[in-house]
Design a protein that fits this description.
Layout: H1 12-15, E1 23-26, E2 29-32, E3 65-70, E4 73-79, H2 85-96, E5 105-109, E6 115-118, E7 148-151, E8 164-167, E9 188-194, H3 196-203, E10 207-210, E11 215-219, E12 225-230
Antiparallel strand pairs: 1-2, 3-4, 3-12, 4-9, 5-6, 6-8, 7-8, 7-9, 10-11
């Protein structure tokens, strides 16, 4: 994300120096993604059963399961179309276009946030152009708990396109609090249901900063997303 960073929460003015997830362009609009604020959750917080709407049938069309195959292994995410229909449809659209194949996990944040970010860069850190930004559904009641998948965005709550992140801990400061620029939070739209250990392994990668792209926490060895496909 050819990054420009703006604060979403009050503390972001000081945190954005290390949390430069980047910006993504849609047409002529630069879209900075997930400049995020955080409390400091304990590493290794256990995954909870209430991170989504609850257990669903494997054949439930409102809760499709997608497999994300990476160079470090595969993990599955169950999306919640009941709570986040716009966001799930947006993710499915990118999947069906093959947009995510060949992209990388381009940022790993270890403190105070704990998350990994993907969905917009190639291994040579070329930014892929996203589609039209979508309206945020962060008010849907789903929380940024360990194992959830959420949309990355910039200071405008309605600026998310293709990029997403996976919470490695309970990042409660990213939750919706109010329909204001300071309190809108980041939209959770599903959870990892299999292979969370793969995500944890990705998070253990050694990282470096790339000043030319204004990205921090870039894995030294590219973690490439080979395919994303719906399996249920």
């Amino acid at each position: 994300m050819q990054s420009r960073w703006n604060a979403q929460f009050t503390l972001l003015a000081t945190l954005c120096a290390w949390l430069c997830v980047g910006c993504q362009k849609s047409g002529d609009n630069a879209q900075p993604t997930a400049a995020m604020n955080a409390s400091t959750p304990a590493s290794g917080t256990a995954a909870r059963a209430d991170v989504s709407a609850g257990p669903k049938s494997d054949q439930d069309p409102k809760h499709p399961v997608f497999r994300i195959e990476t160079s470090k292994g595969a993990f599955d995410v169950r999306l919640d179309e009941d709570k986040a229909p716009i966001t799930v449809d947006n993710f499915r659209n990118y999947v069906e276009r093959g947009f995510y194949s060949g992209t990388i996990f381009h940022q790993i944040i270890k403190s105070p946030l704990q998350l990994v970010v993907a969905g917009g860069f190639t291994p040579d850190l070329a930014e892929k152009k996203g589609l039209v930004p979508i309206r945020s559904e962060a008010y849907n009641g789903l929380k940024n708990r360990r194992g959830t998948i959420a949309m990355a965005r910039g200071d405008n709550e309605n600026s998310a396109t293709s990029q997403y992140f996976i919470n490695l801990a309970d990042n409660t400061a990213l939750d919706f609090k109010a329909r204001t620029p300071q309190g809108y939070g980041y939209c959770v739209f599903g959870e990892v249901v299999s292979g969370l250990d793969v995500v944890d392994s990705i998070a253990q990668s050694s990282v470096h900063d790339v000043s030319a792209s204004k990205l921090t926490g870039v894995p030294n060895e590219a973690v490439v997303i080979r395919t994303v496909k719906q399996i249920k």
